[in-house]
Amino acid sequence: MPFLREDGAPLDELELAQRPAAGYRFELRAPIVYVDDETGRRYRAPAAGEAPLPAGITDLASVPTPLWGFIASYGRQSAPAVLHDAQSLAAAALGDRGRALVQRRDDDLVFRRALIEQGVPRLRAWLMWAWVSADRERTYAGAAGWLLLGQVGLGVLAVAASVVLAVLAGPWWLALALAPAAAALPWRERAPLLLVLTYPLAAFGPLLVVHVAALVPFRLVEAVVEVFTGGDPGSVVRPTVARPDADRP
After folding, report:
1. pLDDT for the residue numbered 247
2. How far apart are CA 107 and CA 91, in angstroms?
């Protein structure tokens, strides 16, 4: 089912207002509703200012600035991202890590289904789900969450090593790339998360490194220009964050 307005009509406009004090955050000016076809459950993202939560505040899709060339922070994913931010606030407000972890696991799956329903390509939707899920495990799962992320890192190294060794010593080393999949099995329901984090990161990691490496010189040139023109060189790090005096000429 598509996203809806509060009155049940199809969502034809996502009403957002950029917050001037922090330019990468937005206020949701009118609530939105999503009905999950798989469970029949109705979800609502409240508008900014609704009590009792600090509701309606979103950064849209939480994609780091250097990676916007791969996945934009807004677009077809905007409504699912706004809903997910609202659900994440609600989970954090529970005040109990165990309960928050259980709720976030469900909410993250809803996020993935909503992304696909909105037309986001499936690979991109799964990657976005994996990254918010990794943040969830880090935040709420304690030592187990950090163990999971550590295993992802080792898995990426194993896949990369298998390719290098296959080139240098023989193709049988490619079997090493299966090790992360085998190591994911004991995680049971978390195994898909490990796989979606490990193998795409191993495959696309070099592209990410090249992309960031190309961006760094540009940011350095920006910073130098800011220094010599009396600007703020620190502003080039997060170009979407507004300075307090940004309205001055």
Report:
1. 44
2. 9
pLDDT for residue 49 is more than 60: yes
In which order are the strands placed within the sheet that holds 32-35? 4-5, 32-35, 42-45
The CA distances from residue 219 to 52, 91, 207, 226, in Å, are 41, 36, 19, 10
Q: Which H helix or E strand runs over 230?
A: none
Residues 34/3, Cβ–Cβ less than 8 Å: yes
Q: How many C-beta atoms surround the C-beta of residue 159 within 10 A? A: 22
Helix (H) or strand (E) run with residue 9 in it: none
| Residue at token pair 């034809």 | 12
- For residues 99 and 105, give the distance between their C-alpha atoms in angstroms, rounded to a whole number: 10
Residue 52 has pLDDT above 80, yes or no: no
State in Å, rounded, how far the first CA of the chain is from the last one: 47
94: Cβ contacts below 8 Å, ≥ 6 apart: 100, 103
Strand-strand pairing, 26-28 and 16-18: antiparallel
Q: List pLDDT tens digits, range 93-107.
A: 898 999 999 999 999
pLDDT score of 66: 77
In the numeric block, the tokens 């905007």 are attached to 78
pTM of the prediction? Answer: 0.87
